[in-house]
């Protein structure tokens, strides 16, 4: 239990105390009062946990013997232990407040939100950050803990703000080059390669993890590109959409753009029920060999969009490729028809 952890924290080594502090995040749930902003709040918790685990990696907490003793003579190690004890005390205080709430709240007010009900983008980010932390946690928690919930926004803000301050204090105690932190962050999000996911990370990390937010911002500049139309004239129910489009299937596969793009139109005139989309439309990823229809035959790319269709295959007359890798988008297609 977290309250037991807070009581015995001072008797642990810095490494053991650190492992348990990081593990405490695993048992935090959010109550139904967070439903409107649940995904964003859960990711804020994930970002705070990831940043704390990153500090442990920068100081080699798994390998440095200074962190493996209960009573260290190193002044910086002693200060680090004091900060980690404060983190343990914070979790204990928050759980005490949670327990008080449960004694007076109605049953429906005690319902917890579930990670499995998150939308594809935040759920994949949550799973990604959780996996990063798990790989870093070579040590295991020494104490048994039970899940508990935060029910009000005030305590949630308190937790995020204080964890952020404590982590900053730990980083200041053992300073490393900014390039080292950036390298670790880039490794954390190396598989995050779509615009919606990067935008979400940029947002949730803004006030709690400046390095993560900055790296996400820089990566966004690569993927956003430019979508522009100068003049639009429409009649009846015709409409135009300017911007990139991501379907749920594409987001669940972390489908990313191959690079910066530019989609422009000088004038658009529409009538009736016509529709125009100026931008990239990313739908889903195929498995197997992928060929880009706009490039020469020997150019192979790793991602396929729905727009990759029979046009390329018609021009190349590459029947085997059509049959093997794209039968689902070429029903009844005549590959000898070059019209």
UniProtKB/TrEMBL annotation:
Stretches that traverse the bilayer? none
**Is Cell membrane one of the keywords?**
no
**Prion-inhibition and propagation HeLo domain span:** 6-201
Q: In what residue span(s) does the Het-s prion-forming domain sit?
A: 222-281
Write the record's keywords in alphabetical order, separated by commas.
Answer: Amyloid, Prion
Q: Could you tell me which InterPro entries the record lists for this protein? A: HeLo_dom, HeLo_sf, Het-s_prion_dom
Q: Does the keyword Cell cycle apply?
A: no
Source domain of life: Eukaryota
Q: Which Pfam families match?
A: HeLo, HET-s_218-289
Q: What name does this protein carry?
A: Prion-inhibition and propagation-domain-containing protein
């Amino acid at each position: 239990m977290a309250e037991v952890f807070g009581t015995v924290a001072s008797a642990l080594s810095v490494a053991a105390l650190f492992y348990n502090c990081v593990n405490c995040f695993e048992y935090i749930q959010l109550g139904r009062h967070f439903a409107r902003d649940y995904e964003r709040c859960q990711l804020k918790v994930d970002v705070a946990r990831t940043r704390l685990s990153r500090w442990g990696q920068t100081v080699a907490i798994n390998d440095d013997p200074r962190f493996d003793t209960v009573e260290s003579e190193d002044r910086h190690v002693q200060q680090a232990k004091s900060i980690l004890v404060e983190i343990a005390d914070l979790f204990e205080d928050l759980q005490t407040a949670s327990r008080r709430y449960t004694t007076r709240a109605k049953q429906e007010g005690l319902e917890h939100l579930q990670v499995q009900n998150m939308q594809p983008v935040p759920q994949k980010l949550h799973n990604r950050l959780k996996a990063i932390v798990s790989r870093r946690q070579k040590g295991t928690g020494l104490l048994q803990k039970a899940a508990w919930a935060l029910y009000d926004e005030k305590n949630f803000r308190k937790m995020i703000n204080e964890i952020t301050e404590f982590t900053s204090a730990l980083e200041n105690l053992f300073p490393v080059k900014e390039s080292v932190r950036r390298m670790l962050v880039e490794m954390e999000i190396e598989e995050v390669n779509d615009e919606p996911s990067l935008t979400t990370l940029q947002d949730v990390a803004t006030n709690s993890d400046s390095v993560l937010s900055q790296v996400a911002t820089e990566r966004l500049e690569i993927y956003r590109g430019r979508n522009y139309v100068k003049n639009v004239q429409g009649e009846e129910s015709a409409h135009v959409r300017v911007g990139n489009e991501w379907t749920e299937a594409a987001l669940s596969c972390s489908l990313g753009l191959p690079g910066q793009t530019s989609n422009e139109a000088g004038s658009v005139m529409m009538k009736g029920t016509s529709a125009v989309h100026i931008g990239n439309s990313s739908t889903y990823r195929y498995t197997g060999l992928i060929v880009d229809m706009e490039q020469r035959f020997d150019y192979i790319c790793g991602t396929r969009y729905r727009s990759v269709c029979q046009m390329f295959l018609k021009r190349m007359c590459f029947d085997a490729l059509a049959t093997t890798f794209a039968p689902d988008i070429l029903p009844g297609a005549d590959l000898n028809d070059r019209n």
